[in-house]
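Chain X:
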Amino acid sequence: MVKKRVTFTIDEDLDKKIHHLQADFISKSSKSWSYSSVLSMIINEGIRALSQKTKNVREENVAKKHTN
């Protein structure tokens, strides 16, 4: 996977939550977890969840059209 450097601002609360998750991952595994790797995992999971949700909404809309 090709990585790209991106700069953005983030809410302090979100930053704290990401750091807490990072600390959790580090304490529960022998693997090293960078902030970037945790953030990438969160983004990937969020995109996957939103994609599934979007797919479900589309399927519901198609089903509604067929019942009308």
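Chain Y:
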Amino acid sequence: MTCVMRASLKSASINLLYKNLLKEAEKLLKADPSAEQAVVVLTSKGNMFSFANRNVMSGSVEDEIAFVRALTENGDTEIRYMVCMWEDATPDVPSCHLRDLLVELNPANQNIEILLKSSEGFLVKSLKVLFGSIKAASENI
């Protein structure tokens, strides 16, 4: 039996945090009609980073690599919260490639709390709960 943990969004500060991340994702999608997905994160240092993922459906990883490079260049690699929003405004999980990149960047990123849409509204789950332990690509060699 698999135990699935659900995080409650009852806390006013968490509600506000995710509301702000959702608004930022919506802005990104409106600003870039070619974007298939918007990704917005809040790091453990309290900084917000975001990017428009333009060709995620075709398997392009250029935007994701540039995003991870920006995190690295800013010395801010531990992500606490994430929203990945599709062009239809649905929050979802990030691509497999981005998940792997983020865990390779910082193993603590297995604990990123991702906002998801469910039949009951919104819920939050960590990467680790969703996908189990993610090994960095270099560990799979």
